[in-house]
Amino acid sequence: MKTEPQDHLRMTQKRKAGFEKKKAAATKEKGLLIVHTGTGKGKSSAAFGMGLRTVGHGMRLGVVQFIKGALYTAERDILDSFDNCDFHTMGEGYTWNTQNREADIATARQGWAQACAMLDSGEYDMLILDELNVILKYQYLPLEEVLHQFATRPANLHVVVTGRHAPEALIEAADLVTEMRLVKHPYREQGIKAQAGVEF
Amino acid sequence: MKTEPQDHLRMTQKRKAGFEKKKAAATKEKGLLIVHTGTGKGKSSAAFGMGLRTVGHGMRLGVVQFIKGALYTAERDILDSFDNCDFHTMGEGYTWNTQNREADIATARQGWAQACAMLDSGEYDMLILDELNVILKYQYLPLEEVLHQFATRPANLHVVVTGRHAPEALIEAADLVTEMRLVKHPYREQGIKAQAGVEF
């Protein structure tokens, strides 16, 4: 898109006007229900990026990781070092490591009890429920119970739910939904292994 | 997907076997060229989430923000507080605030000179070039020059490029590409304003 200076000026003025108009119409504040789903990368990273912002603003962040407990994550060490972040990790890694549906359900219940306590406490500005979508996909928790809990949470609490396969009803209930779509992945195409910083 | 315990066991065993096979075939380590694009949210947040991991591992992170200079970002304050992170912000906010193509090009050049110095230095494990896609879309920098610089960077340096409208040739050159697809956005649909933690 090559443009002359005067076209550029007209174009950017128009774009700025549109942006300002949209911004002026957006006046409400409320806690958002945010969902990151899809088979691409970045669902958890984007949630933790928002968590980092929240902590940086001096607001209070809570995290419940539902199934990545066995995996070392460097972001946990950093976020957890802040007084205004509470980080809880449940489960024993990916579900296929346990090979036991009953044990997986019990672990999911434990994580959800922790999440409910944090949802109800009124102490948080943002709560990240990492990989909860996967828990819901496998029906380890009743979807209706989860949606009811979200609907009755404190009005200004942002909740971020990550994981593949977000249920349709959760997407319906959400305010902000992003699908991370896989375009290219080096695991599959080039035989490259998981590397620090990128994958864990 | 309701399953009986024995089906669950068979299913998870099969899935685990496939995962292990794929992991065993992935043995190479190399610096990845990573692109986050699309009109959805989370492109920069996911990059900063990876940056947080990198810093948490004690690896060295560099960041050049090409067009968000005027916007306060809490993640900058936190990342910048670590000795193993160098954070540079260029530009004067969104391009439509300056209304001047020549000034925008000069600012892009300044950011790119900074990025090149960091790419060539050999001192970094990961470099985040935030919103560079937008700079390329507006042709503020020659794409060929950028691709050549990426192709000749140190072999183990991960580069993460964010922004809408990633050029096709950059996607071709990349190892890992995720498109953040907008499914629902509260600005547009509910008149909700930008909020701390979520948007900035």
TrEMBL record, chains A, B:
One Pfam family hit: CobA_CobO_BtuR
Documented EC number(s): 2.5.1.17
Compositionally biased residues, Basic and acidic residues: 1-10
CDD domains: CobA_ACA
GO molecular function list: ATP binding; corrinoid adenosyltransferase activity
Transmembrane segments: none
Any Gene Ontology CC annotation: cytoplasm
Biological process (GO), any one: porphyrin-containing compound biosynthetic process
Catalytically driven reaction(s): 2 cob(II)alamin + reduced [electron-transfer flavoprotein] + 2 ATP = 2 adenosylcob(III)alamin + 2 triphosphate + oxidized [electron-transfer flavoprotein] + 3 H(+); 2 cob(II)yrinate a,c diamide + reduced [electron-transfer flavoprotein] + 2 ATP = 2 adenosylcob(III)yrinate a,c-diamide + 2 triphosphate + oxidized [electron-transfer flavoprotein] + 3 H(+)
UniProt entry keywords in alphabetical sequence: ATP-binding, Cobalamin biosynthesis, Cytoplasm, Nucleotide-binding, Porphyrin biosynthesis, Transferase
Alphabetized Gene3D superfamilies for the sequence: P-loop containing nucleotide triphosphate hydrolases (3.40.50.300)
Associated pathway: Cofactor biosynthesis; adenosylcobalamin biosynthesis; adenosylcobalamin from cob(II)yrinate a,c-diamide: step 2/7
Subcellular location field: Cytoplasm
Region listing for Disordered, in residue ranges: 1-21
The family this protein is said to belong to: Belongs to the Cob(I)alamin adenosyltransferase family.
Protein task: Required for both de novo synthesis of the corrin ring for the assimilation of exogenous corrinoids. Participates in the adenosylation of a variety of incomplete and complete corrinoids.
UniProt xrefs under PANTHER family: CORRINOID ADENOSYLTRANSFERASE
Protein's name according to its UniProt entry: Corrinoid adenosyltransferase
Organism per entry: Paludibacterium purpuratum
